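Give me the fold.
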Amino acid sequence: MTDQPDLTPDHLRADGEALLLAPDVVLTPDGPMDHYAVVVTGGTFLAVGPAERLERTYSHLTPVRLRGHILMPGFVDAHHHLTQTFGAALAFGEPSEIFRRLWVPLEGALDEEAVYVAAKLAALESLRGGFTTVAEAGTRAPVDVELVAAAARDVGIRCVLGLVCNDADSGADTATTLASAEKHLVRYCTEELIHPSLAVSVPEAATAHTLRDTARLAAAAGAVVQIHVNEHLAAVERSLVQHGLRPLEYLHEVGALGPQLLAAHATLLTPREVNLLADSGAAVSYNPVASAWKGNAVAPATTMAERGIRFGLGTDGTRGDAFRLAEAAEFAQRLAYGLATGDSSCGAGWTWLEHAGRGGADAVGLGARTGGIAAGAAADFLLVDVSGPEMRLSWDLPWELVRRGNRDQITAVFVGGRLRLWRGWPLDWDGPALVRRAAELSRDVLLRAPVTRVHPTSTEARHAQAEWSTAQ
């Protein structure tokens, strides 16, 4: 038996053989299970159960004992923009609807190499942060989305890959747009890691015909349509002026609201719109960090949970750190709703782990494939070291993971049964070289991209404040 003190990546590489992993705890859909083990083969979990039983049943396998570790599902990022990573820090201090001033110009300045490198950098950051799946909401860069797929594939992360189907103001022909959508859904339908999806930036970016037909095409293919919905007050008001309906109401009116919809943000919801989500079976990406950085409000996620509304947690490209995202999910609910109602639980910890994993997988259309530690599921999982001072004294593991867990505790990341990262870095390609190249390219891109920032850098803001104080 292999013990944790001598653990190396070689112990976790199957080379075509099955792996029998025996950590201290396995985080199953039923909760934490002490002295459990898993058998991994062919990219999936073959068996999950008490370690003693699995060691007897699979006596031909040498157990790898992972002392001080838990084995838990990989996190699912239900809303990302992989090709925006070069400008992620530009969002600091900016008012809402920054996509018009930052992301559209930035992505428009990306060439093929920049798209690939930006997406690969974002995918690496996501893996480092514990995400084994990301939902990419569609790039605006004028390139083939295969470059984004290739980046995700090369990193080894599972990716729900959106194809933007905007046809209202882009001059695109509706028939051509829908034909491209059909080809995209077929192009990646048999891939292991890339899962096709359709996307519309905001409801007003597509014609009613395209909104309705992308919903139909996605539903038939078992895919999702990703749309930013009810994120900013200005967008809600534009929809009211143009259609006499709020964005979510408009999607319902044109026949685009249903189980295939993945509504990003959904922060500004009336009680009627909450009912529409619940009745339609649509899913939401709850993006609490994005709300804090660049939004108007916080989505009512605890209400969604009580109403049975499907939702996952998304970063919106803010930072690829799953543990901090789960903490933000609880923290935002506490500040926005819990304090006002005296709700000291705000999801009781497990809610945010559930929706960061299995609930997120369901929201992005992969609920039958990933998101949990169970026989037959894809072996997308983390080995997390809980032997340190943050979590060694454990009384309530799910809540501790939400409030005290951090990405530095992640020893290994597996996607599709393969070891993808060891202590934060890939083993079969040069991660630091990618970071260096991204730093070089990002400078060139930002120099030529016509981005417009409202807020100065933090240093400039500090100097301005000092000058103002001196002048008083």
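The chain is about 40% helix and 20% strand.
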